[in-house]
Specification:
The complex is a heterodimer. Chain A is an all-alpha fold. Chain A is 71% helix and 1% strand. Classes of the chains: A mainly alpha, B alpha/beta.
C-alpha cells in the first residue's frame, strides 16, 4: 500500500503545486483519489485471500503509518500552510493520547464506546492548542520554535507530576485494551483497527482539503506568505493564527488518541522529545504545504526508522564493512542525501521530476 | 482401484509415521525451532535516551556467537534477532510484533526497560509466547497466575531496598534515617520498597530529599541531610550522584551508616571517583560480580568471562558491568533451552524456565543460585550485603532475600 500511496501522492502534489491555477479547478476530488481510498478499504480483506502477504502485523504497521500521517498533517496545517514553526507537536500528541487513555481507564462504560475518545481528544487539544497559540502570537519564527520546544520537553515531565499521578499513572503509564470489532464482525483486532483509523484519516483529510481550498485556506496561506499584506487586506491574522494552532493541535491530538488505542498503552517515555522531531522530519521529508506529502511523511517516519537499523546491520554483517554505524547515523545519512537530492521533500521532488519529464 | 491404492499408501505412511515416532525420541517444535535452528527475539535501546544499555544487546549477541561456534544447543544453532526500540514503548510493540508474527521466534528474551516491557506484557501472554528473563528492576514480572508467559530475572529494586530497611532496623541502634532519592521511577521503586521494609518504623526516616537527573550536583541535598541529625544514610542515586554524595558527606565530616543502592555499586564508576578514603565502611547489596573489583580476578568464572570478552568483544570496555549481566542472563537462557531438549515448544520452554533448581549461573555471587517453580517466577531473588574495605567490597553475612510481591 505504501507504494500505491506514494505513486498516488505524486499526483496529489502535482495538483497542490498548481496553486497558481484558480481554486475552482482544484476544487473537486480527483477520481484517482477515490481509487486509492477504495484500494485502502479492500486491502485488509485480502488477508483472507493471501494471508502470507497481508498479515495482521503488516496491517498494524500500515495503521501506525496512518496515525503518523494524521499527526504530520496536523503539523503541516500549522507549519506548511500557516508558516508557524512548531518543534513541540509531540506534546499535543501526548495530550491526545492521555485524554483517550484516561477516559478509557477511568470511565467504566467507555471501552465499549472508545470512538468517543476521538472527539474528546480533538476538543481537548484544540483548547490547549488555542490557548498556547495566544501567547505564541507574540513570537515569530525561531522564538516560536523555541517556545514549542519547551512545551515538548515539559509535557512528559508534567505527566509524571504527583498531582496528576492518580490520572496518568505517573511513570508507570496506563495499560489499555485494544478495541475489538463491533457487531460480531469476523475481523481480527488489527483489521478492525485499520478500518477505524482509515475512516478517521479519510475524514480528516477531507476536512483539511475543504478548509484549505476555501477562503479560510487562502487566508492561512496569505498569512504565511506575507503577514503584513494579509493584515492590510483585512484578514484577522491573530484570530486565524490561533485557530490554526488549535486545529493543528486537534489533528495531532487525534493521532495521539488513535495511537493510545492501537498500542493499548501510554507512558511518558512514549512521548519523548524525539517524537516531535520525527514529526517535523516527516513533514519536511514528505513535503511542506502538501496534503499528499503528509501521507508520505507518515510512511517515512515509520518505515525509514525501522529500515535504518536493518541497513546498518546489512552494512556490518552482509557487506562486511568494518563500520559499526548506529541506526541513527544511517538515518542521518539518509536524511542528508534526501534533502540534497530533493530539497522540497519527496512530494516536491516527484513534482519536479514530473515537470522535467514533460518538458 | 485408484481409491484402494490411495488407501494403501495412506495406511503405509501412517504406519511409517507411527513407527518413526516410536523408534526415535519425539521431536516437537513450535514456531522458531527446527532440527537445525532456534530463533530467539530481543529488543534493546541501541539508540535514544537509554542507549547506554545497548551494550547488553551486543554482549548477548556475542554470547550466542560463542555458543554457535561451540556447536550450538543439542545440535541446533541459535539465531538471535535483536531489534532497536529506542526505549519507546510504541516502538517496542511494533518490534516485538515483528519478531513474533514475521520472524516467528520461539521466544522473546531479555527485552529491556520497565515501560517498554509493560507495553508488550499483555500481548505476549495473549499470544502465549515465552517472554523470558526481562531486563528491568521493577517488581511486577513474576506473576505466574495472571501472566504465565512472562518471567523476570534480576532481584528487583523493591526487594533490595526492603532488605536494607530490615538490616537497618536489626543492626543500627536508634536509627535516624536520611534518604537521597533520584526523582523518577527507579528512585520511587526503591523508596516504596524501603518504606515497606520499615513498616511501622517509617517515622525513623527523618529526612527525605530528591534530586533530578539534570541537576549539576547534590551538594545542597547532602547538607540538608546532614543537618537533619541523621545517623543512617540511604543513597538512592546513579553512580555520578552517588559519588558526589559520598564525597560531600566526607567533606562535611558527616559519618552516618551509609547504605548505597546496587545500581551504583561499581568500584570504577562510583567508589573510585568518590575516593577510597571517603568510601570506607559503605554498605551495599550485591548479586553479580563486579569486573572492577580485584577480589574476583582469580575466580575461574571471571577468567572465562575475560577470555570470552577478549575473543568475542574485542575493544569493548571490560570495566562495564553490563557485559557481566549479559553473560549471566544468556547462560540462564542457554541452560533453559538445553533442558528443553528436543521438545522445543513454547509450553515446554516455560515449563523448563519454571523448574530450575539451585542452578549455578556464572558471575552471580557465590552462594546465590537460581531457583524457580510454577509459582515462583523470580529467578534471582537474593543479594548479599558487602562492606567497602580498602579498594574492594567485602561480603558479609548470609544470602538475604525478601518476598516483594
Amino acid at each position: 500500500m505504501a507504494t500505491t500511496e506514494t505513486a498516488a501522492a505524486a499526483d496529489a502534489v502535482a495538483r497542490q503545486a498548481a496553486t497558481a491555477e484558480p481554486p475552482a479547478r482544484a476544487a473537486a476530488v480527483k477520481p484517482w483519489v477515490w481509487a486509492v481510498v477504495a484500494v485502502a478499504f479492500v486491502l485488509p480483506l485480502l488477508k483472507f485471500v493471501i494471508p502470507g502477504v497481508i498479515s495482521d502485523y503488516r496491517l498494524f504497521v500500515i495503521s501506525t503509518m496512518m496515525i503518523a500521517a494524521i499527526a504530520v498533517l496536523g503539523l503541516n496545517l500549522l507549519t506548511g500552510f500557516n508558516g508557524q514553526i512548531s518543534l513541540g507537536h509531540g506534546a499535543f500528541y501526548a495530550v491526545g493520547a492521555y485524554t483517550a487513555a484516561v477516559m478509557l481507564d477511568k470511565i467504566s462504560w467507555m471501552p465499549d464506546y472508545y470512538f468517543l475518545t476521538i472527539p474528546a481528544a480533538a476538543v481537548m487539544c484544540f483548547v490547549v492548542g488555542y490557548l498556547f497559540g495566544l501567547p505564541a502570537l507574540r513570537l515569530e519564527g525561531h522564538y516560536l520554535a523555541l517556545a514549542t520546544f519547551a512545551l515538548a520537553l515539559a509535557v512528559p515531565q508534567l505527566l509524571k507530576y504527583k498531582w496528576l499521578e492518580g490520572l496518568t499513572g505517573g511513570v508507570q503509564g496506563v495499560v489499555l485494551l485494544k478495541p475489538s470489532p463491533p457487531f460480531g464482525l469476523p475481523l481480527s483486532e488489527d483489521q478492525w483497527l485499520y478500518y477505524y483509523i482509515l475512516v478517521i484519516m479519510v475524514a480528516l483529510y477531507f476536512i483539511a482539503f475543504n478548509i484549505l481550498r476555501g477562503r479560510n485556506g487562502r487566508a492561512m496561506m496569505a498569512i504565511r506568505d506575507h503577514q503584513m499584506a494579509a493584515d492590510t487586506m483585512g484578514i484577522d491574522t491573530a484570530q486565524y493564527k490561533t485557530v490554526t494552532f488549535g486545529i493543528s493541535a486537534a489533528y495531532t491530538g487525534i493521532a495521539g488518541a488513535l495511537s493510545a488505542s492501537a498500542i493499548a498503552y501510554v507512558a511518558p517515555d512514549s512521548f519523548g522529545f524525539f517524537l516531535s522531531i520525527s514529526l517535523l522530519i516527516g513533514l519536511v521529508v514528505g513535503g511542506v504545504a502538501s496534503l499528499a506529502g503528509s501521507i508520505i511523511g507518515g510512511v517515512f517516519t515509520v518505515l525509514v526508522q525501522n529500515s535504518a537499523q536493518a541497513l546498518s546491520k546489512f552494512v556490518k554483517n552482509d557487506l562486511g564493512l568494518p563500520f559499526d554505524l548506529s541506526a541513527y547515523a544511517v538515518y542521518g545519512i539518509l536524511l542528508l542525501i534526501l534533502m540534497y537530492v530533493m530539497p522540497l521533500g519527496i512530494a516536491g521532488g516527484i513534482v519536479m521530476a514530473w515537470r522535467r519529464l514533460r518538458g | 482401484m485408484a481409491t484402494s491404492r490411495r488407501g494403501f499408501v495412506g495406511g503405509m505412511s501412517a504406519a511409517v509415521v507411527f513407527s518413526g515416532g516410536a523408534a526415535f525420541a519425539q521431536k516437537k517444535y513450535d514456531d522458531g525451532a527446527t532440527d537445525t535452528e532456534i530463533k530467539i527475539g530481543h529488543t534493546n535501546p541501541y539508540s535514544g535516551p537509554a542507549s547506554a544499555y545497548g551494550v547488553i544487546g551486543k554482549g548477548i549477541e556475542a554470547y550466542w556467537k560463542m555458543v554457535n561456534d561451540k556447536g550450538g544447543i543439542n545440535g541446533r544453532k541459535v539465531k538471535f534477532v535483536s531489534l532497536d526500540d529506542g526505549y519507546s514503548p510504541p516502538k517496542t510493540v511494533e518490534m516485538v510484533r515483528q519478531l513474533v508474527e514475521q520472524e516467528k521466534v520461539l521466544c522473546v528474551f531479555n527485552t529491556l526497560g520497565t515501560p517498554t516491557n509493560t507495553a508488550i506484557h499483555r500481548y505476549m501472554n495473549q499470544r502465549k509466547v515465552p517472554h523470558l528473563f526481562v531486563a528491568t528492576g521493577a517488581s511486577k514480572w513474576g506473576k505466574p497466575k495472571e501472566f504465565p508467559w512472562t518471567m523476570g530475572f534480576q532481584p528487583d529494586y523493591h526487594t533490595e531496598a526492603a532488605i536494607y530497611a530490615k538490616h537497618i532496623l536489626a543492626n543500627v541502634k536508634d536509627p535516624k534515617i536520611a534518604v537521597l532519592m533520584q526523582n523518577d521511577d527507579y528512585g520511587k521503586d526503591y523508596w516504596e520498597g524501603f518504606k515497606d521494609g520499615l513498616g511501622k518504623d517509617i517515622n525513623k526516616v527523618v529526612r527525605h530529599v530528591t534530586y533530578e537527573v539534570t541537576d549539576p550536583t547534590v551538594d545542597s541535598q547532602v547538607i540538608q541531610l546532614k543537618d537533619s541529625g541523621a545517623n543512617v544514610f540511604f543513597n538512592i542515586a546513579i553512580p555520578k550522584f552517588a559519588a558526589q554524595a559520598i564525597r560531600k558527606a566526607a567533606d562535611l565530616n558527616w559519618k552516618p551508616v551509609h547504605y548505597l543502592n546496587n545500581v551504583s555499586s561499581s568500584v570504577a564508576s562510583t567508589l573510585k571517583p568518590a575516593g577510597y578514603d571517603n568510601s570506607q565502611g559503605i554498605i551495599t547489596g550485591l548479586w553479580l560480580m563486579d569486573p572492577t573489583d580485584k577480589q574476583w580476578n582469580d575466580h575461574p568464572e571471571m577468567k572465562t568471562w575475560r577470555e570470552w570478552m577478549a575473543k568475542y568483544m574485542p575493544g569493548a570496555n571490560t570495566e562495564d558491568g553490563n557485559y557481566i549481566y549479559a553473560y549471566a542472563v544468556s547462560t540462564l537462557m542457554l541452560e533453559t533451552l538445553k533442558k528443553a531438549g528436543d521438545t522445543l515448544t513454547r509450553e515446554n520452554l516455560m515449563k523448563q524456565a519454571a523448574s530450575h533448581q539451585k542452578l549455578r549461573v556464572p558471575l552471580v555471587l557465590p552462594g546465590i543460585t537460581v531457583s524457580t517453580s510454577p509459582t515462583d517466577f523470580y529467578p534471582v531473588q537474593a543479594i548479599r550485603l558487602a562492606r567497602f574495605k580498602g579498594e574492594t567490597w567485602e561480603l558479609f553475612g548470609d544470602v538475604l532475600s525478601a518476598e516483594s510481591t
